[in-house]
């Protein structure tokens, strides 16, 4: 396993997390073969780590875990994501199962984050109050969301205006423009994104007004 992961700590930890709980030799051999196939042809460090991280993601059996994990990539790189805020977003985005009460929904959210932490795909900090993604793991998530689901993440890039209309493709599911310097949205800007369910504009402190046509 160390050889397959090129001795890289992140790759070792993440692949080990994805295989935790395996007790049968057949499972280990099957997982090893699957990992070999995912790494085939990758020689340099960056490309070599990516398929190992994708492998760990693909081993998440519950679709809810995958969806909630990918949602975390909408936040800034190295950003301390408040755990309660993140779970509240999971709830509002309907990424989890419906529960009988708000408390039960938060319990489900904490359980999902705990499973992602156990799989070494997220980290918990500050007495479990915040969640953080390693930058390479976030890069892996953003690579996945270039296709399906389709995200556009331009967070923390010091943008001063909203992206050109041609960037807003019809297949977009989620967009994050948080922590930029966007100060104005033109009244004639109206992206045609029928699948868009999330638009994050937080921390654009100069932005005071969003025209209604933007959401048409």
TrEMBL record:
Q: Can you give the residue ranges of the Disease resistance protein winged helix domain?
A: 75-141
- GO-annotated molecular function: ATP binding
Q: Which GO terms describe its biological process?
A: defense response
Q: Which UniProt keywords apply?
A: ATP-binding, Leucine-rich repeat, Nucleotide-binding, Plant defense, Repeat
Pfam families associated with the record: WHD_DRP (PF23559)
Family to which this protein belongs: Belongs to the disease resistance NB-LRR family.
> Which PANTHER family does the UniProt entry name for this protein?
DISEASE RESISTANCE PROTEIN RP (PTHR23155), NB-ARC DOMAIN-CONTAINING PROTEIN (PTHR23155:SF1032)
| Designated name of the protein | Disease resistance protein RFL1
Organism of derivation:
Forsythia ovata
Q: Provide the taxonomic classification.
A: Eukaryota, Viridiplantae, Streptophyta, Embryophyta, Tracheophyta
